[in-house]
Design a protein that fits this description.
single chain; 36% helix; three-stranded parallel β-sheet; two-stranded antiparallel ribbon; 4 helices
Length: 137
């Protein structure tokens, strides 16, 4: 269950101090998928084996949801199970960065879901309901 946090190298380094994040992250996800394939779920809804990718949506499109969804659809599988998360909430040093100083809006979360669908991904976590604390855009 890997996270795909950022699609842009500059943003990854700026926000998390990580160099080459997209390249290393994508290579890791490719290898995980090679080893276990698409997520298989039994009749009871329990995951048995396979890749489940988590993606936390950030305000102002900073996570690069469209690019991440495109990568998953083109280079992994359109059957990739993607958990698009709306839980971002600023705390600690996030308030020092204007682009991260507010919670995610419902419109931004809905846009992330739409972007994944537009890229051909259809296995999205059905429990991704925007949190009440989301702010209007």
């Amino acid at each position: 269950m890997p996270d795909m946090k950022y699609s842009d190298e500059v943003i990854a380094e700026q926000l998390s101090g990580i160099k080459n994040y997209p390249r290393v992250n994508r290579a890791a996800v490719k290898e995980m998928h090679r080893q276990v394939g698409d997520l298989k779920i039994d009749e009871a809804g329990v995951a048995e084996r396979g890749l489940l990718v988590r993606h936390l949506v950030l305000p102002h499109g900073l996570a690069g949801t469209k690019e991440i969804a495109s990568f998953l659809a083109r280079e992994i599988s359109t059957n990739t199970y993607l958990n698009i998360m709306a839980q971002y909430h600023p705390c600690y040093q996030a308030f020092n960065l204007p682009q991260l100083a507010r919670p995610l809006s419902q419109a931004e979360f809905a846009e992330a879901i739409n972007l994944a669908h537009q890229q051909g991904l259809c296995r999205l976590d059905k429990h991704n309901i925007p949190l009440p604390r989301l702010t209007p855009r």
